[in-house]
Amino acid sequence: MLSNRTQTVRTRHSSIVFRHKTPRWFIFLALCFAWWEYNNLFLKGGVLESSGANSWHATKIACWILRSNSTDDILRSDAIRKGWGKYCDNLEFIDNNTPGINAGWIEKYEDLSAKSFYAWHFMFDKYVHKLAPSKRADFILKADTDTYILGQNMRIFLSHLDPGTAYYMGKELLDQRGLPFVAGTAIILSSATLKLFATAQQGNSSLCSYNQFRLLKQAEDVALAQCLRTLGVYPHATWDKTGAERFMVLSPDTMRLGGEDGELPYWYKQFSMNIKKGPGCCSAEAVAFHYVTVTELQRNLAFHNSTWTWD
Fold first, then answer.
1. pTM metric for this prediction
2. Which residue in 283, 271, 222 sits closest to 247, CA to CA?
3. Nearest Cα to 187, choosing from 277, 48, 287, 112?
4. Domain range holding 29?
5. Which of 72, 100, 189, 226 is deepest in the core (most CB within 10 A)?
């Protein structure tokens, strides 16, 4: 309760002192301003609004979506274009009809690695190599048609990173040999990493070659990790300061509640280094979820009680 003699309103950056003769309307306006300032400097609705992220609008992000020509993927592509795709400076849907791409693959699940190989090279040529420095993409995101990206969180997260540094980011898993890789549901490469990949030696014995990618069939994420390791690039830690995940390979509901048995999938618990479920599992600064429906792609996610739920 305010004193009769002195009334004080404290904000994060200032302390404003009002004497007892100060008009009440002025005090009311000062309180409104203090709330507005607090609300715009800190976390609001699960979206990071850090005052340190001054350049997030300037960060250039080119996104590509691995899709087929199926009716379902076309519908999903439309939902992404109208939804989170708006947070990408450039958006490409990659199939064998994509203009300008070398479609040296068969449009089937078993040839995903070959398709991914050509897609990464296509993105490098179009959005990094052939553009003036001021127009080049800083980061390149690869996602699936059932991936949901929280676009503003993505942009703010990337605005703190130097695209000239070799970053390889997403949900880190372990392969059958215990080696780390980023799950293909959402992979982000800095332009520096994409250049390393695209200009790597292409001899048949190179793990960055088309032949090596094609050998791994649908394991396009493992193929990329295998190549990048030879170039000295490993997954960059993307957990927030509490240890919660920013990138998820499961849906918001599964991360919150588990599957039908109330548990996370066996494969996830076997190959993920973080197997937390429920409150605290997923960062308030989350960037990606997976296994979402066409309808969910058009909905908003909100952060309530330390979990993400559909609005």
1. 0.82
2. 283
3. 287
4. 6-41
5. 189
